[in-house]
Automatic annotation (TrEMBL):
It comes from Streptomyces vietnamensis. Transmembrane segments: none annotated. Heme binds at C399. This is Cytochrome P450. The lineage of its organism: Bacteria, Bacillati, Actinomycetota, Actinomycetes, Kitasatosporales. InterPro entries: Cyt_P450, Cyt_P450_CS, Cyt_P450_E_grp-I, Cyt_P450_sf, Cytochrome_P450_monoxygenase. Belongs to the cytochrome P450 family.
Amino acid sequence: MHTIPFRPVSGPSGLPLLGNLPAFRRDPLAFLAHLRDDCGDVVGWSLGSKRLTLLSHPDHIAELFGGSQDLFPPVDISWVFRQLVGESVILSQGADWRRKRGLVQPSVRPRQVRGYAATMVECALDAADGWADGHRIDVEGEMNLLTQRIVVRTLFGNDLGDRARTLAEAMEVTALELGAELRGIGMLLPDWVRTPARRRVLAAIATVDAEIARLIRARQEEAAEAGTGDDVLSTLLAAEDEEGRRLTPRQVRDEAVTLWAAGHETTSVGLTWCWYLLSSAPEVRDRLGEELDTVLGGRPPTFDDYDRLTWTKQIVKEALRLYPPAWILIPRITREGAVLGGTPLPPGTMICCSPWSTHRDPRWFPDPDAFRPERWDPHRKDDASEQAWFPFSGGARTCLGARFALVEMALVIATLAQRFHLDIDPGEVAPAAGLQLRPGSELCATLRDRETSLSPSGT
C-alpha cells in the first residue's frame, strides 16, 4: 500500500538551451533545498536538454532503491566520470552489473574489512606520532594524506612510495575537473569536444591507467609464484564467477579506481567534517573522550571495538547526515514497467535524489542544521530518520565500500581523539559542492594534547 502519492510537479522555469543550469551552478545546495521546500517531493527540473525529476520524500527514495535494478538502472551524465570509472559496477546494468557486483563484493565483505582494520589503526597511529601539542595543521590535508595511505595499503598491499603521490595527484586532477563539470557547461558538451579541462583529464587518466596496469602485472606475477595476496587488488584478480570467468585487467582497473575514489575521497572529506563538528561541540567531544577511556583504556582500538564504540559511531553517522560527501547521487533512468508510488513512469524518465537535501529536511530531522549525535541512539527507534539517511545510496546499489568507510572513520577518530583535540579556528565554514561536499575554505586547527589538557596543570 502506497501512503505517499507520487505527484510530479514542474520546478522553476529555466533558460532556453541551458534550463536550470545557471541557478544550479551558482549554488547547487541552495537550489536543491529550494526544489524541496518550495516545489514539493517530486519536482521536474532541467540541466540543458536533460530533464530530471528530484525525489525528496524518503518513501519514494526507498522505493527507488528497493526497485528492480533492470527498471531503474543508473544513467551516466558525466564525461569525466565515465573516463574515471570506465565500466565499473557503479555504472553497469543488467546481467553485467549482477556479475560484476558478485565478483567485487567479496573484496569488501566484513571478513576482509576486519583484516583491513589493523592497517587503518596503524596508519592513524603513525599520523598521531607526527603530531605535537600546539602544532597547527590543515585538517583536510592531514585527513587526505592519512586516508590515502590507508587506501593504498589496503587496495594495493604496500605504500608504493613516490608512486602513491603520482597516483593521488592524477586522481585529484580528475576529481577537481569532475566537480567543475557537474556544475558547469561541460556537462552539455558532446563527448568528442576536447576542452583544456578534458585534455587535463585525459592526461591524468593516462597516468592512473599506467600505474594500475603496472600494479596488476606485479600482482599477477606474485600470484604465480606465491599465491593470492590479501589486498583488494589481489582479491579482484582472483575472483571468479559461477562459470569460472575472471575480471579482465581493464575491468580490474575500473573496479580498483572506483574503490580508490570511494575509499579515499569520501572518507577523507567525512573525517574532515567530523573534526569540524567536534571542535564546535565540546560536550560531544567530552563524551567521546569518556567513551574512548572506558572502552579502550588507553590502548589502540581494534575491529572488535567497533560495535562497542557507540557514541563514536553516532558522531560519524550525524556528520554524514549533515555533510554527506556524495551530496547528489547518480541519476537513474526508468525502463518500461517502472512504477513509483503506484504511478507508472514513462520510460526514459531520469530520477535523482540528494542526501544533502533529504538529510536536512525538518520533517525527518527536527532542527536539521544542528549537530546532534544523540539522534542515532540505538535505543531510540525512529524509522523515518533511518529511512531518510542514505549517504552511501541504498538497496542493491549501496556503495560496496560503505562498511569499509564507516569502520575506517570510527577507528581513525578513536585512535586520534584518544591523544589529541583538534581546535579548529572559530567561524562557520560553508560547504562547497564539487565531486565531494568539501569545506569551502581551509580548516586550520591547533593540536591540543588530550592528556595535558585533562591534567590539573593543563587546565
